[in-house]
Amino acid sequence: MKYKRILLKLSGESLAGNAKQGIDTACLEDYAEQLKSVADTGVQIAIVIGGGNIFRGLQGTKRGFDRVRGDQMGMLATVVNSLALCSALTSIGQKSRVFTAIRMEPIGEFYSKWKAIEALEKGEIVILSGGTGNPFFTTDTASALRAIELEADAMLKGTRVDGIYTADPEKDPSAVKFERISYDEIYAKGLRVMDLTATTMCKENELPVVVFNMDIYGNLKKVIDGENIGTIVHV
Ligand code: UDP
């Protein structure tokens, strides 16, 4: 096993399946099964889920919402997704716990590093909701922050593409996948793997990020076993 403690980032849209909005229960079940099979091997898993399948603050501003209000709505959307994933995990017998970045007991426990590590060490899957708790950030930044705080070995970014390409592979058939790429190359080539705040946090704290396709069943386990199926971002 290459990694013993991971932070998995899932976008909100990844929970929506083909509909791209809302929550697709078949998707949830698939993720829950994959997660349980990895947790059963003793790997400690913390998860940050986005909220884009429900609401994004920046999009809200185009519809006349105040940015801070919109971001608060976005953060709440991540809580909704986290509760859904927790419920799917519980239904297949996998212990899991939702933490929130903003106090809202009894919906979730107020996040602290030590409570989260205690749960991870007991074999529970820890779902960290509410982003960073602050507007003007994204869940990519929340993932970077929590991965660093929780001393994860890596941040795994589960997406619908199998890694980072020289160009968008859906638009440019000549695009080539990187097996490895440094943070400096990402800046130099202007690649938007994550937002710049998240990228900088990962670089400054020497956190490796693996971008991989989470929609192929079994891929999560392959990444954790060290198979080279995605792109590794390194310092
Ligand atoms: N958000 C925020 N602060 C955070 C994390 C998220 O305000 O620390 C809000 C922001 O409005 C964002 C929304 O929550 O657009 C959903 O998160 P994100 O866009 O990262 O979700 P994803 O694109 O991964 O589904």
Can you walk me through this structure?
The longest helix has 25 residues. The chain has a single domain, classed as Carbamate kinase, CATH 3.40.1160. The radius of gyration is 17 Å and the shape is globular. It has 8 helices and 9 strands. It is of the alpha/beta class and 235 residues long. Uridine-5'-diphosphate (UDP) binds next to helix 2, helix 3 and helix 5.
Write the layout of secondary structure elements.
Blueprint: E1 5-10, H1 25-39, E2 44-49, H2 57-62, H3 67-91, E3 96-100, E4 109-110, H4 113-121, E5 125-129, H5 139-149, E6 154-159, E7 180-182, H6 183-189, H7 196-204, E8 209-213, H8 219-224, E9 231-234
Parallel strand pairs: 1-2, 1-6, 2-5, 3-4, 3-5, 6-8, 7-9
Antiparallel strand pairs: 8-9
The structure holds uridine-5'-diphosphate (UDP).
**Rg on CA atoms, Å:** 17 Å
- At the first level of CATH, the class is Alpha Beta
Strand order of the largest sheet: 4-3-5-2-1-6-8-9-7
The secondary structure category is: alpha/beta
Fourth-tier CATH superfamily name: Acetylglutamate kinase-like
Proportion in β-strands: 15-25%
Please give a quick description of this structure.
By secondary structure, this protein is of the alpha/beta class. It has helices spanning 25-39, 57-62, 67-91, 113-121, 139-149, 183-189, 196-204, 219-224; strands spanning 5-10, 44-49, 96-100, 109-110, 125-129, 154-159, 180-182, 209-213, 231-234. It is built from eight helices and nine strands.
List keywords for this structure.
single chain, 235 residues, alpha/beta, Carbamate kinase, 9-stranded mixed sheet, 9 strands, 18% strand, globular, binds uridine-5'-diphosphate
